[in-house]
Write the structure tokens for this entry.
Amino acid sequence: MTILVTGARGNVARALVGQLLDGGHEVRAAGRDPGGARLPGGVEVVAADLARPESWDAALDGVTKAFLYAGTAGLDGFLSRASGLTQVVLLSALGADPASDDAITRAHGEAEQAVRDSGIPWTFLRPGGFAANRLLWARSVRDGVVRDPFPDSHSALIHEADIAAVAACALTSSGHLGAAYALTGPESLTVRQQASVLGRVAGRPVRVETQDLDDYRRELTAAFEARGLGSVGSAEVIEARIRRLAALVDRPQPTTQTVREVTGRPARGFAEWAADHAGDFS
Ligand SMILES: NC(=O)c1ccc[n+]([C@@H]2O[C@H](COP(=O)([O-])OP(=O)(O)OC[C@H]3O[C@@H](n4cnc5c(N)ncnc54)[C@H](OP(=O)(O)O)[C@@H]3O)[C@@H](O)[C@H]2O)c1
């Protein structure tokens, strides 16, 4: 049984490939630029772009299950070619809803709907904010000043390894079909608290300054474009993100126990994520 993991360069996909290999499973990693994916040695890698039908056969040949990203152009067409799969695990987002006014939850809800419509048995992973978003602060932490428009905004950031661990369980054990897992980290921390954790890892104090919203918009747009995610960085999505951050000022984000319930081990805290990525911040 070969499991296809698409989006090989992605934080979650890379962690998932490693965990599936460690568990002795047959994995095929697929990405638009598989050479740039920094994958574990020994994994089968194919070049595939879900927006390019000519690349689908190489990805799907002999595969029974697949891990897919919701934000991927070409998802609908790929799903119709992949109708023989016995399971798709879709990386979606907390609150996904095709009828939502919020551009982020609506886009993820539409991707979930496409998977439902495909008739392929599914499992949806619905994480909240990723701890990996803080990699955008790497240079700021090294410089000792983090700039953010909402320093007192909370988030219960989740480690990409925990999302991958839930995905690995869903793909390799029974009882996960039709489940939509809401996933968060174990604790809600403000931007100031997160910066302080990263400062400890970097071995230097980190100050937080309130950032002008237009600066923030420009920075986020540039960061998305640099990662080839121009559509994710659309103005509507950025405004949705700003509204969410503002809504969580001085309000802890509720956490879920789903990582523990599915994997049997507690979700990793932000300090553990920071330690795992210490090299990026120091
Ligand atoms: N960041 C958050 O706080 C957050 C919160 C909730 C949900 N999410 C979801 O998680 C995603 C980010 O996950 P991540 O951090 O693991 O990924 P990432 O590092 O941002 O990379 C995005 C992935 O999308 C894949 N992709 C995009 N277009 C594709 C296409 N046409 N064909 C094949 N693959 C394509 C890329 O694959 P390649 O290897 O081919 O480039 C890449 O792996 C977001 O897009 C969102 O849907 C994020």
Observations:
- Residues 16 and 164 are 5 Å apart (CA to CA).
- Residues 6-13, 31-33, 37, 49-51, 69-74, 91, 93, 127, 129-130, 132-133, 232 surround NAP (CB under 6 Å).
- The mean pLDDT is 94.
- The two ends are 41 Å apart (CA to CA).
